[in-house]
Write a structure and sequence with these properties.
10-stranded mixed β-sheet, Rossmann fold, 391 residues, elongated, mainly beta, 5-stranded antiparallel β-sheet, 2 domains, Immunoglobulin-like
Length: 391
């Protein structure tokens, strides 16, 4: 989105306070549910989809045609010794679906480790890993090459919250804390190694060691993936100690579905405050542009630091005929946060006023350098009222 048409000098100053904003949930989506052991959906998955406010769709296969009819692919593996043959045969279709914008959830009992060719029995035979060995659990995940998953039961009944800012821990099913999922029957079948995961991954739940990740998410193409070593099918089916059985089935599971449905916590940056700019004279010409501004993250995940660009435009749309005025830096923003507070202010000096003579609107362009993968990339531009520049 970055477009610089004229080089202009910038003088910026910022004021800070604090604020909050709540984000409403999205409309109901089609959630396809599937169990690798059954080759179709498990009826026990339906309630968690309903609690999340979405529409259950039983998937009897995972071909491109089947996946075209759903927004979220909600998969569980009930086997401790293998992955479903049908699932493995559809990996290319699943990869393409997620890359194009679908969301994939996998709860995995097997947590295959992979290893050298001809080595570990727990590896997925016939699939190579990124080092030429036999692939493990990373092979069932779109974009999972390089991830390391370990099947391990040394801390199986301890699940801690590593990131409490997502819908997974505070969603339509309710609120989870560090004790909510503890004390179960082999509540996790291992973990993902934090250091092997993408830097941008959301590390949501862990074992006692915060680098041993139980539930995580990451973006892949236009979609996202949630992977967990929790044997969710066991708890959805009504088995296990209670608590935490109901906490898994009635709080955690609906929250995970809601989280995936909303894009696995994608940020969404908008210009939340941009009143009509003020033009001032320099050397007898109207060359100085003064703006006030504020940016909000109305998404469900944190946004990294970004840039807010300003343009002079004859209309309200950003196009090649617009005149670049300047840029200000916006800090990282948590979901619902705004900055600067109560607003920031910037002055831009036009060194060549003849090219900017006339009546213009000022455009503010959030995330102008595309630093964030947003849930909505179409709402970054806003405009002010008319301002006269030049002579």
């Amino acid at each position: 989105m970055k477009k610089h048409f004229l080089n202009l000098s910038i003088v910026v100053f910022v004021m800070l306070l604090m604020s909050a904003f709540s984000v409403s949930s999205a409309m109901a989506l089609n959630v396809g549910y599937y169990d690798m052991c059954d080759g179709q959906g498990d009826p026990a998955q339906v309630n968690s989809i309903n609690i999340a406010g979405h529409t259950p769709v039983n998937l009897t296969d995972l071909t491109a045609v089947d996946l075209a009819n759903v927004d979220v692919i909600y998969v569980q593996n009930c086997s401790n010794g293998s992955y479903g043959a049908e699932y493995l045969s559809r990996l290319a279709d699943i990869d393409a679906a997620v890359s194009s914008g679908k969301r994939l959830i996998i709860h995995d009992r097997y947590v295959s480790e992979g290893g050298p060719a001809g080595g570990l029995n727990s590896a997925i035979q016939g699939l190579e890993d990124h080092n030429g060995g036999v692939a493990g659990a990373e092979a069932i995940l779109p974009g999972g090459a390089g991830f390391t998953m370990i099947r391990d039961f040394s801390d199986y009944a301890n699940i801690n919250i590593r990131d409490n800012t997502t819908l997974v821990t505070n969603g339509p099913g309710g609120v989870l804390n560090d004790a909510s999922l503890d004390g179960g029957n082999y509540s996790s079948h291992g973990y993902s190694v934090a250091g092997s995961l993408p830097a941008s991954a959301n590390l949501i739940l862990s074992r006692g060691n915060p680098d041993e990740i139980v539930t995580l998410s990451y973006h892949y193409g236009s979609g996202c993936v949630v992977y967990s070593t929790i044997p969710l099918d066991y708890y959805l089916g009504g088995s296990g100690n209670n608590p935490p059985r109901d906490n898994f089935a009635l709080i955690y599971a609906p929250n995970v579905v809601a989280y995936a449905a909303e894009g696995c916590g994608a940020p969404d940056l908008i210009v939340s405050y941009l009143p009509t700019a003020i033009a001032g004279k320099v050397g007898g010409l109207i060359r100085r542009l003064s703006v006030k501004y504020r940016v909000m993250n109305q998404g469900t995940d944190g946004a990294v630091a970004s840039e807010l660009d300003f343009y002079l435009s004859r209309d309200t749309a950003l196009n090649a005929g617009d005149v670049y005025a300047g840029t200000v830096n916006i800090p990282a923003l948590a979901p619902g946060a705004e900055a600067p507070l109560p607003y920031g202010a910037a002055n831009f000096l036009l060194p060549t006023p003849a090219s900017a003579v006339g009546t213009w609107k000022v455009l503010g362009v959030a995330d102008a350098n595309d630093d964030n993968a947003e849930s909505d990339e179409t709402n970054n531009v806003v405009s002010t009222g008319a301002v006269v520049m030049g002579k």
